[in-house]
Specification:
Low-confidence stretches: 1-7, 31-50
Number of domains: 2
Mean pLDDT: 81
Number of strands: 7
Helix content: 25-40%
Structural class: alpha+beta
CATH architecture of the largest domain: Beta Barrel
Radius of gyration: 27 Å
Largest sheet: 5 strands, mixed, barrel
Length: 204
């Protein structure tokens, strides 16, 4: 056997083994360029749903609405960027604060505190309103049902529950993972005796 020929054949095979992945990478890169696909695409979850806040270069998240006024702890009036000439009433999804403005009920314990907290947090602020694909678009009063995010990325619905300003209100259609998250936050707030869970503030 001619060992020089065998070694040459082995070298060729090794060279092909090394070059084949490079060739495939080159073909894939050319294909991406031809289709206009960026080399570092935005994660597909950004495009999968409009319900998630979008991170921008200038602010923590992109906002899509302006809070005109706070009605009570879990209800706000907003102007959408897409329809700035019109106001919409928004009911925060998955949470329920003690009542302060319902004419059928007396003001409930910690209702004013919850309302004041929401006013201080949202009045005159820009926010991101996020829909839940598994929840209703509106409630029986015609209010939009939305999750609210502050422009620093704070999940305000969750914050109300986690600090004892709101109960987890999960008896209506909603993303199951979100329901579980709100229930967990409620349990943690209750165990920590925060807000209306504190017997000094309210008797629950």
């Amino acid at each position: 056997m001619d060992w020089s020929v065998r070694l040459t054949d082995m070298s060729r095979r090794r060279l092909l083994y090394l070059l084949t992945p490079l060739a495939m990478f080159g073909l894939i890169a050319a294909w991406r360029i031809a289709l206009g696909i960026p080399s570092n695409p935005i994660p597909p979850t950004i495009f999968a749903t409009s319900t998630q806040p979008i991170v921008t270069a200038t602010t923590t998240i992109q906002t899509n609405a302006f809070v005109v006024r706070v009605v009570d702890g879990d209800t706000i009036d907003v102007k959408l960027d897409s329809e700035p000439e019109k106001e919409y009433k928004v009911r925060l999804l998955g949470v329920n604060t003690p009542e302060t403005v319902d004419p059928r009920r007396p003001v409930q314990c910690f209702g004013h505190e919850a309302s004041d907290f929401t006013k201080a947090s949202l009045n005159g602020k820009r926010i991101w309103l996020a829909a839940d694909s598994q929840a209703d678009e509106r409630d029986k009063y015609g209010r939009l049902l939305r999750n609210v995010y502050l422009d620093d990325g704070t999940d305000f619905n969750a914050k109300l529950v986690s600090q004892g300003y709101a109960y987890a209100y999960v008896s209506f259609p909603q993303d199951p993972a979100r329901k579980a998250e709100l229930r967990k936050l409620e349990t943690q707030a209750k165990e920590a005796k925060l807000g209306f869970w504190n017997p000094i503030n309210c008797t629950n």
